[in-house]
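Its record is retained below.
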Amino acid sequence: MRRYLTTKISGFNPKSQFQAAVRLFLCLITLVASGNCFMPRSALSPQIIRASITRSMAVAKTGGKVLESVEEFKKTVLDSNGPVLVFFTAPWCGPCRLSVPVVKDVMKEFSSRLRVVEVCTDDLPEVAADANVVSIPTIQIYSRGEVMDTIVGCVAKSVLFSSVEKVLEDIALRVGDVGSEKS
């Protein structure tokens, strides 16, 4: 038995397996495009695929509020007086899933001074485009509708913590400067 397994494993050729997978994929695409497939083309439309994903799966679970419309983004983030951390993510994004615990920790640590919201870039591509998000995960920190800091990709907890602290200090200095100008 062991000899059989060794022969089978050593005989595995990843290149030929990959080529076979590519050929199968191309055949499937050809069938769907030609209409000779059991799956209707309408079943592959992005709207139907997006609608089939439930909200619980659509966005990583950081505990922050999930924004579901452009208007809600404007009201919650751009029109907010306090600082808001926006976590741009997608359900299929592996690095986004890795960033979830880091964002959760930041939310717990700064819950009294910072609001955390999530935007699924698949559901709100126009929000991501307006925010100049070209890669996910992206974390942006807003204050009074202005982007104070942007972090792209997976980051260590210490990096995100220091970025949030820096932004909160900058906001405190701004408020202090405005208060001193009025005196």
Notes: Residues 1-10, 36-40, 48-60 have pLDDT under 50 and may be disordered. The longest strand covers residues 83-89. Residues 101 and 151 are 16 Å apart (CA to CA).
